[in-house]
Amino acid sequence: MVKLLADSKQGQNRSRVTPTNVSSGKGLFSNGDQLDPKRKKKKKRLGFAVCPCSCSCAICSLLIGLLLVIGLAVALAIILTRNSSQTASTTTETTIITTVSTTVTTNATAITTPTTDNEVTTEEVTTASTSTTDSTIATTQTTTLCPPTGIVNLQSFSGVMSLWTNQQFNYTATKTSPTLVFTTVSTNRIFYLDSVSVVDTTNSSIELLQNPGFDNSSTALFDWLLWCSSTCGGSGGQLISSSCLSGNCFQDACSGGTDYLLQTFSATIGSTYTISFWLKRSGAGGATGSFSIGIF
Fold this sequence. Notes:
Region (Disordered): 1-37
Keywords: Membrane, Transmembrane, Transmembrane helix
Radius of gyration: 43 Å
Transmembrane segments: 46-79
């Protein structure tokens, strides 16, 4: 009887989980982990490993978004520049500086190993990264001036020109992009312009103007700009197909105001260019108005 009781007690002792069993790593809650600070730090580092990846993805998404915004701004600046060039006479370079600051915050939760048999310790870690991008967009903006400034007048016409007459002038370039301009001030007169030409005197076979005879146009003036026609009380400059020297021509009857027909061409400073065109005038009355050619 005594022997049976002793055997029973020894069996109970063998089935009991001792601190030695736990520290050896066989139990769920390991005292060995609690006593080994190196293993604890390693597990903490594994807990934080999620954060950098999330931050990198967020920052990459932010940078892609900023590049798209900059691309749209550049496209918009180009579109605005082209639209404004139809009514402007001087150009000024401006610089637009845009600064974008964005803070990306990522939350992560790291779980440490238990410190006791019945407790689990959790630690919430919040990381934040800030990305600041400075972008510089250089644009060219135009300013409308009526009349244009800096015009050098080559010749004015106000006499009788009931028939088409050819006019010709020489011009020595002082800039690489001069602008040819025809100015009309008309009272009871209509001026007609056709077959305009600008050539280098050393190579007259190359025409420097686009659409010089207005024949590439149908209802609108292509390659030419018409400024300040809103100041005209009568009909300002327009494209017509009748009463022309050949094909289409330009007609202007600006009354009470002044409008300008112009086109820019490429030149070499110091080179001489021949400017020629055909002109006539119609109408009657005391006042004659004037038509002039200039460069700016």
